[in-house]
């Protein structure tokens, strides 16, 4: 495989397609395809070879049918088993490895999501590959671009591994469209690995607001909000007046003002909405790593020297407890 990959430069496009084949891992939750994971399909298409999708879980037929309509997929590999519903890495990784080996894939691509970050390192270890994480661009089938040091440097890395195991940054690859595709659906292999890990329960923060990772507008609150009560009182009406998702800095999360799932930044979610409004957030480098690619950045902070103003397109210096309710009222009107 290694020889095949290195010689691809001298192959015709048709021969290249035969040599390169990518498996894009699709996520599902409660029988619904997670469209955010379709970034993996877009990235896999850029490799130039054939692209198959992979999805597993119980009563998977409706997810598989939806996945078959995803543009750019030639085939959808499906494993119907409740054992894979929650994406536990202990059994999901061996499941993927069996299917990767069976399909002879040269590339495995997943989103750099909680699921991708959980499962793919195990897949890479089992395949004896060096994982390439959180890529933002593909130069060719073995050369990838990824931010390092919280986005302060951009590394271009080349892999000589037989199977390249890759996670992609969702904001760098738009999700593949659903509708135009007509992929064949095929049963994958189920190794039925005995796992010592059992799914017990989950406690999810639910919200009617848009999903933070894919929202077009995000309003984020920081330590300046002072308490959970104030955070909810100030940020929720602001979000609703804009139809925005709510985000938070790590200081706000660590102080218990906001749920951990709302954290934006190096160790939280990476977002790139049309509008990002930072309220009472200083703009630490680790926070900027999660939002600096937003199209328009606005900030409200009482400190005119706060670093957030260095990246903001629009800034308002003032007390957030005064300015935000005023802004919310004006937006509602
Ligand atoms: P602060 O830095 O305390 O800023 C609060 C701001 O609110 C100040 O600028 C202040 O002027 C303003 N303010 C206060 N009161 C008011 C008021 N009444 N009106 C208007 N403005 C007001 N951080 C993240 O956010 N996300 C991450 O993913 C992340 N990952 C990290 C990973 C590592 C390894 C490390 C070391 C740190 C990480 N951090 C992360 C933490 C980061 O360094 C900062 O500590 C954090 O972002 C600060 O959050 P903040 O801006 O809310 O708080």
UniProtKB/TrEMBL annotation:
PROSITE patterns the UniProt entry points to: ETF_ALPHA
Purpose of the protein: The electron transfer flavoprotein serves as a specific electron acceptor for several dehydrogenases, including five acyl-CoA dehydrogenases, glutaryl-CoA and sarcosine dehydrogenase. It transfers the electrons to the main mitochondrial respiratory chain via ETF-ubiquinone oxidoreductase (ETF dehydrogenase).
Required cofactor names: FAD
InterPro entries assigned to the protein according to its UniProt record, in alphabetical order: DHS-like_NAD/FAD-binding_dom, ETF_a/b_N, ETF_a/FixB, ETF_alpha_N, ETF_asu_C, ETF_asu_C_CS, Rossmann-like_a/b/a_fold
An example Gene Ontology biological process: fatty acid beta-oxidation using acyl-CoA dehydrogenase
Protein name: Probable electron transfer flavoprotein subunit alpha
Cellular component, GO, one term: mitochondrial matrix
GO MF terms held by the record: electron transfer activity; flavin adenine dinucleotide binding
Organism taxonomic ancestry: Eukaryota, Fungi, Dikarya, Ascomycota, Pezizomycotina
